[in-house]
Write the structure tokens for this entry.
Amino acid sequence: MQPPAASFLLLLVVSLSQQRVSCMVHYRLRGFVAFLTAAACLLAAGSAWPHATQLSSSRAEAHGTRIAVLLELNARDVEIALKVSLLGPDAEVAPAALREVEQALADYIAERAKISNSAGAACHGRLIGARPKAEHVLVDMQWTCPPMTGQLVYSVTLFQEIDPAARHMVTASGDVRRMALL
């Protein structure tokens, strides 16, 4: 008696929800046709996934009413957020391309990284400079705060419009040293 031809079950249900795709298929196919169908489904679903951001980070140092922050951002995330091209053919940030988008980058950061005190008084941020570091962008920012009462609050939502699961690592120093994953 010969064994039955190889067969498997593949379930495909495509649902789009907040730019995310789930792929499950239900077909009963045999042999090579099943393999080709599965490969096509995987390729189609893979091309529909949104950009998954990389971990970005900030190092903040408080000096009286001034807070100096060094942000390290993945250049591909910046490209998508600003709809620009930063990476050269060597997959590193091109300094000239970064200079062209410095103001747009400063505006983007100002909208999505804010410092205030726990009472709600906002600090004013400004770009000090941006420079390439391989496939990353290093951004120096400085926030100037009014005389403060309470604790400083650093709110960061960088790249969450691209990837709602975007994460940001913060290291803060001043009177005390703290680290957090936002």
Summary: Residues 1-49 have pLDDT under 50 and may be disordered. The two ends are 62 Å apart (CA to CA). Residues 31-48 form the longest helix (18 residues).
